[in-house]
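During the reporting period the student researcher (J.K.) took over the structure-prediction task from the postdoctoral fellow and processed the backlog of single-chain submissions. One of the processed entries is reproduced below for the supervisory committee.
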Amino acid sequence: MHKILAQIFLITVVLQACKPGNSSNVIEFNPATHTFSNIKDVRTKHLNWEAIVDFDKKQVDALATWSFENLTKAKFIHFDTYDLTIRKIKVNGKEVQFFLTPFLESYGSGLSIPITEKDSIVSIEYTTGPKALAMQWLAPEQTAGKKMPYMFTQCESIQARSLIPCQDAPANRITYHASVQVPKGMMAVMSAKNPTEKNEKALYDFDMEIPIPTYLIALAIGDIEYQAIDERTGVYTEPSQLEQAARELSDIPAMMKAAEALGGPYRWGKYDVLIAPPSFPIGGMENPRLTFATPTIIAGDKSLVSLIAHEMAHSWSGNLVTNAVWDDLWLNEGFTTYFERRIMESITDTSYTEMLWELGYQDMQSDFATLGMTHADTRLRVDLNKRHPGDGFSNIPYEKGAVFLRMLERNVGRPKFDAFLNQYFSTNAFKPTTTEICLVFMDKHLFEGDTNKRNQLKVREWIYEPSLPDNCPHLTPSRFVNVDAQRKDFETSLTASKLNARNWSTHEWLQFLRKLPRTLSLEKMADLDLVFKLTQSGNSEIADEWYKLAIATGYEPAYAAMTDFLSRVGRMKFLEPLYSEMLKTPKGKEMAKKIFEQARMNYHPQTAGKLEKLLKAS
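J.K. obtained the following C-alpha cells:
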C-alpha cells in the first residue's frame, strides 16, 4: 500500500553521538505497533498543551510539555511526529539537541530526545505542518452558518502525531491539560471538560484527568454553541443547527440509562455530542466526554441515532477497555457494535433491532464479497504488521465481532452473558487489552473452565480463521418479510403508488432499495422517484442507496442531486460506494473524476487521499 514501506519496514537510525551497541540510543520504527516511540522503556504520563490556532496560516503553534516515567534507565525518549516543525526542546528546563528520523509518508518521523535517569519533564516547541492528517480546515462557506471558519481533528488511528508530538500507540494512556487560544468569536471544545459558552478572550482551558490513549485527543473550533439535554448530556454544533440537533438527540439520556444497565456506571462525567460540519470523514468518533458526529445522522425522525448509541457504547468498549494494538480492533468495534444493538433494543423493540442486525450482516457480506471469503482480513484478529492500521478498518471487526458475541449470548443465555460483559469492563478498565487476554477472561468467567463448551462454539475459529463459522446466527427480520414481498410485486407489476410504504422506517427503505435489481428499468425508477421523491431525500442513508441504484441503472434525473450530495458530504461510508459504482463504466469514470476535482476541497485530507487512490487504480 505504501511504496516507501514496501522497501523499508524497519528503520533504525543511530544518533551520531551514540556509542555502538547501546539499544537505548536507537530509534526503531516498529511495523507491528506502528510507532517510533519506546514506551516499554520510557512512558509519557501527562501532557500540558499550550496552543495558538492560526486560521490564516492553517497551523497550530504549540508547546507540548510531557511528564514521563523512565522505566529502564533509558538515555533517550522517543516520540512520533508527522510534519511538525520542531523549534526547541528542553528537558527539565535545559535546552537539548534532538534528532528526527527521515520522513515516512504514512508514519511521519521519529523524534529522539536525550534524557538522564533523574529527568521527568520534556517540553517541545513546535508548529504543525500543511500535511497534518489529523486536521481539516474549513472556510466559512464550507460550514452551516457561512460566517466563520472551522477546524476539527480526527486522530484515530495514528494521526495524533500530526497534532502533537506524542507516543502515538493505543497501549499508552495519558492525562492532559490544554490551554487553547482561538480567534475571537469562536469556541474551542476538546475530549475533556468543556466550556458551555464562548468567552471574550477566546482562550479556553481543558482538563482530561482520566487516562486516555492519544488517538482520543480531539479538538474542534468554530462558531459553536451548546444546548443541554439533561444534567449530564448535551449537544454542541453551529447555531443554525442547534435546536434541530438537540431535538434529534433527545433520547441520549435513555440511551445512557440502557448503557449503564449493561456496562456498569458511566465513568467519564458528562457525555456530550458535537455535530461536526458535513465534511466530517466518518460517522462518529468516540472522543471521551464529547463524541464527534456527522450531521448526516440528523434525519428529522431519529431514525439514524443508532450511531450515537454506538459512540456512547465506546465509553466502555474502546475508551475504558482499549485494544493494545490495532490488530485487535475487533475488541473495540465488535464489542461496541454488539453493545450499540443492545442499547437500541432497550429504547425501541426487538423488531426494530432485528433490522439493524440484518443491515449490518449485509454490510459484512458485502466486505466478504469484496475481499474474498478466505482473505486473511476476514479474521477478527488480523495481522497489520508492515501495514497501516487503517487497513484493518472494515465492516468485519464491527459486524463479525458483534455477531460472534451475539452467538455467545444465545448459547450461554443473556443473564450469564450480561454478567460476563459487566465484569469484563470492570476488571479491564483503563488497561490495554489483547485478544489473548480477552480469551483467557472468557474461559474463566463465561465458560468457567469448560473448554469443551468453548470448542463446541468454535470460539478460536471465529477469531483466528477467515470467513464465518457455520454457527453464525442469522434471522430474517419480520418487518423485512413484508418489504421483500412488496419489492417483488413492484419488480413485476405493482406501481409505486400501490406500495404500502408511507410509514416505512429508514431501515425498511434501505432493505427495499438494496434488494432492487441493478437492471431495474428507467420507467420503474421514474415511477418510484415521482411518488416518493427519492432523488431529493433529506435522509442521507436513503439518498446514498438511491444514488447507487441511479448510477447502476443510468437514471440521469438523479445525477445533479447526487453531485450536490457528493460535494457537501464528506462521510467515507457514502462516498466510497458512490465513486466505486461510477467507476464501473467509462462514462461513469469521467463523471467520478469531474465530481472529485470539484468536491475534493470539501473532503477531509484522509478521505481525499483514499478517493484519489481509488480513482487512480480504476
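The committee noted the following: DSSP finds 19 helices and 23 strands in the chain.
J.K. will present the remaining backlog at the next meeting.
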